[in-house]
Design a protein that fits this description.
alpha/beta, Vcp-like ATPase, Chain A, domain 2, Rossmann fold, 2 domains, seven-stranded mixed beta sheet, four-stranded antiparallel beta sheet, disordered C terminus, binds S-adenosyl-L-homocysteine
Length: 305
C-alpha cells in the first residue's frame, strides 16, 4: 500500500465521523472491541479500524455507514460543549479578520468549549486562554487535545480578563465574552502596537458600546462585519437555497492598536503654514478638504454634493 492510502487508514483511539443513510452524523472514538449503537443498527469498531477513511461499513441491520475523519467544523458542531461555541462560518472569518498566522502570540478570553482555540491552534498560533469557569477550562483542554493533539502550544489560566492581562507584547487578543469594552484598557498595555483585537458579540447594542469605547481608546482602524452563510439544495431540477439557514450568530469587530500621537502637534514634517487635510464641514460634520485636489476627494461629497 502506498503512503497515500496509508494516511487514510483509521486507527484504534482515533475520532471518526459516521454518516448514516440519512446523512445523520455521529462523532465516535474508535476502541478495539467496542460497538456503536444507533437506532438504525450497531456498528462494530473493529470493522472500522484498519480501513481507509471514506469507506462504507455495514451495520448490524445491513444499513450502510460512511466513515471519515471529522473536519474541524464537524468537531466543533459535534463536540461536548458547556458554553455556546463560535460557529464554523465565524471561525473562518475570525482567522482572516484577526490575521492569525503561525507563531502569532494570541490571548483568548473566554475560552468556553475551546472551538475558537482549536481554530487558532490549527492556524499555527501560540495561544494563552483566560477562562472564569474551571469546568469550561477543563472541557476546552480536552476538546483541544482531541482535535489538535497533545503537543499544542496552548495554556488556559483560570482568571477574569476584566481584572487585567499579565502577558506582554501580544500580537492578537480575541474576545468572546459579554463586556469586551472592559478589556480595552488592559489590552492597550498587553499588546504591541499594530496588534489586532477581535471581539465576537451576539448583539448590535453590545457591538456599538464596544465601538464607542474603541473611539476613546488607543485602538483605531475599527471594523464590524457579520457573516451570512447560506447552503444550497442541489438535486436534479431542484436547485435552490435551502429553506433553513442559521439566521444569526454574532458580529465580529476588529481594531488595531495604534501608536498614540498628539492631535494638537503639527504632523511630522509639516511646515507652519500647512493645514490639516480634514476640517469640520459647515454643519459640524467632518468633511474632506477638497482643496488638496480632485484625486483625494473620491467617494466624498464635493462642495455641491
Ligand atoms: N469562544 C468559545 C466560547 C466562549 S463562551 C468557543 O468557541 O468555544 C464565553 C466564555 O467566556 C464562557 O466560558 C465564560 O465563562 C467566559 N467568560 C465570561 N466572562 C469572562 C471574563 N471576564 N474572563 C474570562 N472568561 C470569561
Amino acid at each position: 500500500m502506498g503512503p497515500r492510502e496509508d494516511r487514510s487508514i483509521l486507527r484504534d483511539g482515533e475520532r471518526v465521523l459516521l454518516l448514516d443513510p440519512k446523512e445523520r452524523r455521529y462523532l465516535i472514538t474508535l476502541r478495539a472491541g467496542a460497538s456503536f449503537h444507533t437506532h438504525v443498527g450497531i456498528v462494530s469498531h473493529d470493522d472500522l479500524i484498519g480501513i481507509p477513511e471514506g469507506s462504507t461499513a455495514l451495520g448490524s441491520t445491513g444499513r450502510k455507514f460512511v466513515v471519515v475523519r471529522p473536519t474541524l467544523s464537524d468537531a466543533v458542531l459535534k463536540m461536548p460543549r458547556g458554553a455556546q461555541v463560535i460557529y464554523p462560518k465565524d471561525l473562518g472569518a475570525i482567522l482572516i479578520e484577526a490575521d492569525i498566522a503561525p507563531g502569532a502570540r494570541v490571548l483568548e478570553a473566554g475560552v468556553g468549549s475551546g472551538a475558537l482555540s482549536m481554530a487558532l491552534l490549527r492556524a499555527g498560533a501560540d495561544v494563552v486562554g483566560y477562562e472564569l469557569r474551571e469546568d469550561f477550562a477543563e472541557r476546552a483542554a480536552s476538546n483541544v487535545e482531541a482535535m489538535v493533539g497533545p503537543g499544542a502550544s496552548y495554556r488556559v489560566d483560570l482568571r477574569d480578563v476584566y481584572e487585567g492581562i499579565d502577558e506582554q507584547g501580544l500580537d492578537r487578543i480575541l474576545l468572546d465574552l459579554p463586556e469586551p469594552w472592559r478589556v480595552l484598557p488592559h489590552a492597550e498595555l498587553a499588546m504591541r502596537p499594530g496588534g489586532i483585537l477581535c471581539a465576537y458579540l451576539p448583539s448590535i447594542n453590545q457591538t456599538s458600546q464596544l465601538r464607542a469605547a474603541m473611539e476613546r481608546s488607543g485602538f483605531g482602524m475599527a471594523s464590524t462585519i457579520e457573516v451570512l452563510h447560506r447552503t444550497w439544495h442541489i438535486e436534479a431540477r431542484s436547485v435552490r437555497p435551502d429553506h433553513r439557514m442559521v439566521g444569526h450568530t454574532g458580529f465580529l469587530t476588529t481594531a488595531r492598536l495604534l501608536v498614540p500621537h498628539d492631535d494638537e502637534a503639527p504632523p511630522v514634517g509639516a511646515g507652519p503654514s500647512e493645514q490639516p487635510r480634514w476640517s469640520p464641514g459647515p454643519n459640524g460634520t467632518d468633511r474632506l478638504d477638497v482643496s488638496d485636489g480632485p484625486g483625494d476627494a473620491e467617494g466624498v461629497d464635493g462642495p455641491n454634493g
